[in-house]
Design a protein that fits this description.
By secondary structure, the protein is mainly beta. Among the domains are: about 65-110, SH3 type barrels, CATH 2.30.30; about 140-190, SH3 type barrels (Roll), CATH 2.30.30.140; about 200-265, SH3 type barrels (Roll). Helices cover about 10% and strands about 35% of the residues. It is built from two helices and 16 strands. It has helices at about 5-20, 25-35, and strands at about 65-70, 75-85, 90-95, 105, 110, 140-145, 150-160, 165-170, 175-180, 185, 205, 220-225, 225-235, 240-245, 255, 260-265. It has a six-stranded antiparallel beta sheet with strand order 11-16-12-13-14-15, with no helix packed on it. The protein has a five-stranded antiparallel beta sheet with strand order 4-3-2-1-5, with no helix packed on it. A hairpin with a 2-residue loop joins strand 2 and strand 3 (about 90-95). The longest helix is centred in the N-terminal third of the chain and has 17 residues, at about 5-20. The radius of gyration is 49 Å and the shape is globular.
Length: about 260
């Protein structure tokens, strides 16, 4: 019996050792010796984030005080102020036109280009004379033709149906156009009869600054690359108000002495 006891103790020891190696024991051992990584996944509802761009300040164009609209004839045209001339007069250049069209304007005939109020239409002093339905337009006839709301003296070159080929008095052939009857009227009372032709330049007297033209005197005036026959209506300081012969008084304008090319004799 004494010899068996050690064997039993040895078997017991082996049983305990085997028990220590069972899966549960291994798991218990692992739980106490090996760190376990736990991942928690939280699913959140989708959130739409709306971002607005930062407010952008509206850049208003800088107003150019020289940008205006000026009256020429019976219409208003965009123009730029070039320089002061005298008193309430200044020199202006029409947008899109060359220096040959530069004109002196009184401030009453000038409006700001940025004026939001409607610009009043300027009415010609002379009423229109409608062309009677019974009137037959003939070649060579002196009439008035409408161009940009103004009336100009014209002469008929030829007629085709209800359209007349015309030439503006004082202008070259490059301005000729086919004009419908609706744009033609009789001559103004102030231009009854044929408009006198401007005498040849050889018959002009030179302009003497020491003896400027007088009221009522005929002069040759440069305008838009052409030279026109005009009459001095009045003077205002260094300016001469002229009326172009054969044209509506809507086109009367002040001119400086340098625009008077000569004095027809």
């Amino acid at each position: 019996m004494a010899a068996v006891l050690p064997s039993r103790f040895s078997l017991a020891s082996l049983s305990l050792a085997a028990l220590a190696l069972t899966p549960m024991a291994l798991l218990a051992q692992a739980r106490t010796t090996t760190p376990v990584e736990v991942r928690v996944i939280v699913v959140q509802p989708a959130i739409t984030v709306v971002t607005q761009p930062p407010a952008v300040a509206v850049q208003r164009p800088q107003h150019n005080p020289a940008a205006v609209r000026v009256r020429w004839g019976a219409s208003w045209y965009p123009a730029t102020r070039l320089r002061a001339v005298w008193g309430q007069y200044a020199l202006y250049r029409f947008d899109g036109y060359g220096a040959e069209w530069d004109s002196v304007m009184h401030e009453r005939d000038v409006r700001s280009a940025y004026d939001e109020q409607p610009l009043p239409a300027w009415q010609a002093e002379t009423p229109g004379l409608a062309l009677p339905d019974s009137h037959v337009i003939r070649r060579g006839e002196a009439l008035m033709g409408e161009w940009h709301d103004g009336w100009f003296a014209i002469r008929v070159l030829r007629v085709r149906g209800e359209t007349a080929r015309i030439r503006y008095d004082g202008y070259g052939a490059e301005w000729d156009e086919d004009m419908p009857r609706s744009r033609i009227r009789l001559r103004d009372p102030e231009t009854t009869g044929p408009v006198p032709a401007l005498p040849p330049e050889a018959q002009w007297s030179a302009v003497d600054p020491q003896s400027p033209p007088q009221v009522g005197q005929h002069v040759a005036v440069r305008q838009g690359g052409a030279t026109k026959y005009a009459t001095v209506q009045r003077t205002d300081g260094p300016l001469f108000w002229v009326h172009y012969r054969g044209m509506s008084r809507a086109f009367d304008e002040p001119v400086t002495l340098d625009r008077i090319a000569g004095i027809p004799r």
